[in-house]
């Protein structure tokens, strides 16, 4: 097969992977769409806040395991591509047994502390037992995810992330099935959300094990391959990512806890609902990231810097497209969406909170794929310090604005946006270019064009909404689809140069013709 044919095949594979992964997240969003109003109606808006808080507490725990797992795919992948099977086996087995130890310890600790959590966190007394059970089962799901995480490296090493997306769709359907059965057969409890999450984690873990056994047949988790030296190297390299997660926690992970302690459970629930749209947008970043990571790994292993930068820029266009269309679409249709989705809630407040929380996606949409540069180059110290410093400023800002300026829940949202915009517009693009060894301004033209695209799309969508405002689900879905069809080519026209547009359209055309 010629190099051109190989390139076409890889490009079609990227598009296929993105499509399958996007389907998985759409299924997950459909579950959220149905579940959220049901929970808020049956057990209250406050209860929904604790569902999101349980997921955030798992992210706190993940700080510990992240140090071991951040560079697992990198080291395993590079050793595999360089045909160093013994080295790949060493890292593979070491990560597995290290995760078992760390995940098991965290699960045990959570079992001891969660029964006492009502002494530290304000919660409705009538829901206390249900909320504690939710946290326990959510941490069980975390242990399952941690135990099987090393097998997930196989999809990135062998470029089969399309299978990952397919199995994720199955996991979300299993999650939906568990929720439908439990809510249909038993009295409504938030505990069932944790059970569904744990079941989905089991499906993903087993599917990753299948992919690993199928495509990395030479690797095993035999204890004979375990190496404390390998664990130490991974932990030392990944320590900075764990510290970076502390910064992310200060920037994004304490907002609900601050609401719980300084405001009310109702404010916490409203912010949790508003953050669902941000979560959806961030999920679509993953759609692009998972499709391109194997290409980033391959280009870096080949030492082809020019092609690597080009891969990053194409990923920026795709990620920015998804973020911009969703942001602009919500700005225009958000009020209609919330009136249909959660009638009876304080729609205006939740809509405004959502606009604030997702405005951070304007710069991060284009920048998000570039974060993998830090993993490729094992350069984490400087971005870690920046993120932690930003997180400290965020927490101080939240406290001051709530305590002395009475901004309430809006203070929680605005401080995060301000800090993250500075990080994504200024500090990270400059340092990403530096560690990659390219001119400092390399990524700025793409970031600026993406920002202009978002502004234009928002103006166009709001104009279209002024001509027709949907008042039912069919009208809303029709408008969203029409806006996407209008927004995608408009984004490509504004954000891409002529060569990039030709390359992207070529990928789509070859995929539609199913070229080899």
Task: Note down, in words, how this protein is organized.
The protein has 516 residues and is mainly alpha-helical. The protein is 83% helix and 0% strand. It contains 20 helices and no strands. Helix 2 runs parallel beside helix 5, helix 7 (161-185) packs antiparallel against helix 8 (191-215) and helix 14 runs parallel beside helix 17. The protein is globular.
Distance between the termini: 9 Å
Number of helices: 20
Instruction: Give the overall shape, derived from the CA principal axes.
Output: globular
pLDDT < 50 stretches: 1-9, 511-516
Mean pLDDT: 83
Proportion of helical residues: over 70%
The biggest beta sheet reads: none
Structural class: mainly alpha
What is the alpha-carbon Rg in Å? 23 Å
Following the backbone from N to C, one meets helices and strands in this order, namely: HHHHHHHHHHHHHHHHHHHH
Beta-strand percentage?
under 5%
Secondary-structure map with pairings?
Blueprint: H1 3-42, H2 45-69, H3 72-81, H4 85-113, H5 128-148, H6 153-157, H7 161-185, H8 191-215, H9 228-253, H10 255-262, H11 265-302, H12 305-341, H13 347-358, H14 361-367, H15 372-377, H16 381-405, H17 409-436, H18 444-467, H19 473-495, H20 498-513
Helix pairs in contact: 1-2, 1-7, 1-11, 1-20, 2-4, 2-5, 2-9, 2-11, 3-4, 4-5, 4-9, 5-8, 7-8, 9-16, 10-11, 11-12, 11-13, 12-13, 12-14, 12-18, 12-19, 13-17, 14-17, 14-18, 16-17, 18-19
């Amino acid at each position: 097969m010629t190099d051109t044919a190989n390139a076409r095949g890889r490009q079609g594979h990227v598009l296929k992977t993105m499509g399958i992964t996007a389907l998985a997240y759409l299924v997950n969003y459909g579950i959220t769409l149905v579940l959220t109003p049901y929970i808020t109606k049956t057990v209250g808006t406050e209860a929904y806040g604790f569902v999101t808080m349980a997921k955030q507490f798992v992210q706190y725990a993940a700080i510990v395991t992240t140090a071991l797992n951040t560079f697992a795919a990198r080291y395993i992948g590079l050793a595999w591509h360089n045909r160093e099977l013994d080295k790949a086996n060493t890292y593979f087995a070491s990560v597995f047994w290290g995760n078992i130890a760390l995940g098991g310890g965290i699960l045990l600790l959570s079992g001891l502390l969660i029964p006492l959590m009502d002494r530290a966190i304000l919660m409705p007394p009538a829901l206390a037992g249900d909320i504690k059970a939710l946290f326990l089962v959510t941490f069980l799901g975390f242990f399952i995810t941690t135990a099987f995480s090393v097998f997930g490296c196989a999809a990135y090493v062998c470029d089969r992330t399309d299978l990952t997306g397919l199995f994720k769709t199955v996991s979300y359907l299993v999650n939906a099935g568990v929720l439908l059965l439990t809510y249909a057969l038993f009295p409504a409890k938030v505990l069932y959300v944790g059970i569904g999450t744990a079941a989905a984690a089991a499906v993903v873990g087993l599917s990753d094990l299948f992919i690993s056994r199928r495509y990395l047949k030479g690797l095993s988790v035999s204890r004979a391959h375990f190496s404390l030296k390998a664990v130490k190297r991974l932990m030392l390299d990944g320590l900075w990512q764990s510290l970076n997660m502390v910064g992310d926690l200060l920037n994004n992970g304490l907002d609900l806890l601050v609401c719980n302690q300084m405001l009310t459970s109702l404010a916490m629930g409203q912010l949790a609902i508003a953050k669902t749209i941000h979560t959806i947008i961030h999920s679509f970043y993953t759609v692009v990231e998972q499709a391109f990571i194997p290409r980033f790994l391959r280009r870096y292993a080949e030492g082809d810097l020019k092609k690597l930068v080009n891969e990053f820029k194409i990923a920026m266009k795709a990620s920015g497209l998804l973020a911009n269309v969703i942001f602009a679409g919500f700005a225009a249709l958000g009020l209609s969406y919330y009136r249909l989705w959660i009638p009876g809630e304080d729609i205006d407040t939740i809509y405004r909170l959502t606009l604030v929380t997702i405005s951070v996606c304007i710069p991060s949409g284009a920048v998000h794929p570039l974060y993998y540069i830090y993993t490729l180059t094992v350069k984490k110290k400087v971005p870690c310090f920046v993120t932690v410093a930003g997180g400290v400023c965020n927490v101080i800002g939240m406290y001051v604005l709530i305590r002395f300026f009475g901004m309430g829940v809006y203070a929680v949202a605005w401080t995060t946006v301000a800090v993250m915009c500075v990080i994504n517009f200024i500090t990270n693009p400059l340092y990403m270019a530096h560690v990659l060894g390219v001119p400092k301004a390399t990524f700025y033209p793409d970031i600026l064009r993406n920002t202009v695209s978002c502004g234009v799309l928002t103006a166009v969508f709001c104009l279209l909404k002024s001509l027709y405002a949907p008042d039912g689900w069919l009208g809303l879905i029709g408008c969203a689809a029409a806006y996407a069809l209008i927004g995608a080519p408009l984004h490509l026209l504004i954000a891409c140069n002529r060569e990039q547009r030709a390359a992207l359209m070529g990928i789509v055309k070859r995929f539609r013709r199913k070229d080899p």
